[in-house]
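Lab notebook page, bench 4
Experiment: in silico fold of construct C2
Operator: M.H.
Input chain length: 468 residues
Purpose: comparison with the prior construct
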Amino acid sequence: MILAITRFMGLMALLAMLTLFNLPTAQAATITVNTTVDENGTGANCSLREAVLSANANADTGGCSASGYGTDTITLPTGTYTLSAGSALSITSAITIQPAVGATVIVQAAVGIGGAAYRVFDVTATGNLTISGMTVRNGGQFSLAFLQNGGCVRVTSGVLLVTGGTILENCRTPFEGGAVAGEGAGNSITINGGSILRGNIAGDDGGGVKSLNGSLSLNGVTIRNNQALGGISDAALGGGVSYEGETLSIANTSIVGNSATDVDGGIGAGGGISMRLITVNIGVGTISGSTISDNLATGTTDSLGGGIYKFGSGALTITDSAIERNQATGGSGNQHGGGIYNLVGPIIISGSRIQDNSTASTGGAYYVVNVGAGESITNSCIVANSDTAVVSTDVLNATDNWWGDASGARSTTNPASFGDSVSGDGTTPVNATGFKTMAPTLAGLECQGCIADISALGDPRYCEIDPP
């Protein structure tokens, strides 16, 4: 009896080991493209379009052949891949598209800018696309033939990762998301790894990126020279980035030289970034180690938030970042918040430099309409912004900052300071007490100082600032 039990236990152990060693594994295929021609079943070669169709269907298509389809990788040899078949590449499964080792790859909707009434990639709800190490360009156009979001890439409740130094450039849309648009519940967009978005235009919001009802993460990205034109709605929002959702993360990123310029009688807001942080579940935004500079917000009526425009009651935290040389100017109405304009919800700023921003009215550095619980700017440099530099309609904690002068911020009770100015008497509504008396260095951000202007310009002060 004992021997039988022992044999039975040994058999069970053997079966367990066999099961362990025969567990199913995730399948993955590598599909190698060997032609730049945009063919679909018309030749013996394997085109990019046929490779995508093969990966989506988990089956050979056209001249493409692979084994073990699943989470698939498409590799491209050096070349320019033009989507001459007249439609975007639809992504309905998990696919990585990347150059072969040492290859230089361009994937474009058309040969010229605005030459295609379709984008380059369309990621559906079941799609999960990774683009790495290539240039994607010339998607979309301003026409009735392309009344859609996302000039380079659209993500509809799917997942997108742009990485490996990928460049998204010269894409167009009459609506939102000049380069990338995320729409539909749960869409997820991550852009990192030295990637660049440049020269893209949205006819309405989000010249570089528009994310709606999803998550957006930018890390180590450059977003440069994109435009939002506000031609559909009554506002141009987010020349570089326009976000509406609950989870926004921006780190180690440069958002530079973008513009939100309204063209049809409305407002221009958020030359660099416009964000609406919704608080249904989380409603949190973070900006860290980043530079937001040389952006412009200009409207036909109001011009608000040259660098950042925030609305929505969720909280935004900014740390170790530089917000400088942004402008909110032009139009017949309000012109406020050269650096930052906060309509509602708290912003918590620390260890950052807000410098050389300007408006044609007030709030050169920072303009706050409705102070949220915990709204503050502390341990930061606020220097060389146009007057009045910091304006708030309610009590704002602005303590322990360097204002450019050892006597603190200029105010109604400290008018002789050469430092940046605050609304009120320096205690209310902007509490600028407990100031720094010498220029600090914060997380590698050099802070400058201001003195009496000894030049022939006749300005009341001169502030040293870093060159652009």
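Observations: The mean pLDDT is 90. The chain is about 5% helix and 35% strand.
Next step: discuss at group meeting.
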